[in-house]
Amino acid sequence: MKGFFISIFTCLSCIGVVAQSDLQQLYDTQKAFEQAAADKGIRSAFLEFLADDSVIFHPNAVNGRAFWKARENSSPALLIRSPTYTDIAANGLIGYTTGNWELYPKGKTDPLVKFGQYVTVWEKKQDGKFRVSLDIDITHEKLSFSEIKRITPIDKRIPPINKSRDLNRRGWSAVDPSMNFLRMSMSKKALGGAYEKFAARDVRLLREREPPIIGRKNVVSATKRYTSIEFPKKTAMHESADMAYVWNACEYANSLEGTEKGNCLHIWKLRDKKWWIVLGVFARVSNETQPTLKNRQKNRRSQ
């Protein structure tokens, strides 16, 4: 019996070591992409690291490799990315990185620099290397040092692997909770109510023109005015062990500013026998039609 417990402990320790190794490999791959973007240019870097079936958004979902192959190779634009958080599935097959980006359209000396946040979902391929499965970003004003420090966890970007994490040997799927989240966002509880039920305590939300929103309470407060207009006609989902991601086109009625359209991404993690949203993205697609403000409608009715 003693030998049995020793074997179990040894097995769990090996899982932790392997998972930590995969997480470090994922982080190193992200840094290699950043270096390639600086040395070879944005187009070459993406073509080197994108999977054949990768999805990017410009502004709607397109095949990543097809998009970048069609772009000119002589652009002087410089992209700088800096990860603030990295995580990976228990089996090491999918993971994600998120952080800050800066874009200098005409090179490093260009004063018209743009800023934002990115999320890259990575998948380990048969050759043992990570390739980009999905890449999405949002824009916002430049963050101060204190704001960057606030959104960067104390764990210095690479969190320690929890050896007791659920390997999902029961085969629990994230399909039901993700569909229930979408349905609830259409109800009277709105998007804020859906996040309150399904978001993890340490959830991160990236929203256009806003700095990252951290924590369930803050996310609920920021989204309580949004109600999904209709159930998405198309959703795409991939899950592996204790991690899953879902993306879809989304459209919300904002109680202050009319409707907003965009692309949504949610990353789910299995914790304590329940799937939780740990990261959400709403990348707004610009609409040439100006939203009709609610108070403007009221004024017209009173005339």
What do these coordinates show?
The protein has 303 residues and is α+β, with helices and mostly antiparallel strands. It has two domains: 2-151, Nuclear Transport Factor 2, Chain: A (Roll), CATH 3.10.450; 175-284, Nuclear Transport Factor 2, Chain: A (Roll). 32% of the residues lie in helices and 37% in strands. Strands 7, 8, 9, 10, 11, 12 and 13 form a seven-stranded mixed beta sheet that branches. A six-stranded mixed beta sheet has the order 2-1-6-5-4-3. Helix 1 runs antiparallel to helix 2, helix 5 (175-184) packs antiparallel against helix 6 and helix 6 runs antiparallel to helix 7. The radius of gyration is 21 Å and the shape is globular.
Tags for this model:
37% strand; six-stranded mixed sheet; 32% helix; seven-stranded mixed sheet; 8 helices; 303 residues; alpha+beta; Nuclear Transport Factor 2, Chain: A; 2 domains
